[in-house]
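dude i think i finally got it to work??
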Amino acid sequence: MLALSYLAMIGFTVIGSFWLEVFLKVGVLARLKQAMAAIAPVAFLFIAWDAYAIRSGHWRFDKAQILGIYGPFCIPLEEYLFFLVVPLAAIMTIEAVRIVKKDWRIYK
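look at this
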């Protein structure tokens, strides 16, 4: 059961923010290509950093708390999901605030 820890955290992130898509109709999933275009460059940098840190011995993942499925650069599947799900959840949250607080602007 401990092997599902990281995946559970990602699942809670999904539950905590993806409901905004359904109930507030934030429209982020309708613009998924646009969101991924914004997320991908940053995710690439963090994945490169992870790969370097793992290879150098500065960073590791507790094998008891992950599924044991690894992608390129010996990075666990959960870490790749993290770099996609968390930014997507953040974008959904920002869009939800913009819907609820019509006078709130992120640009000046």
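The two ends are 47 Å apart (CA to CA).
im so relieved honestly
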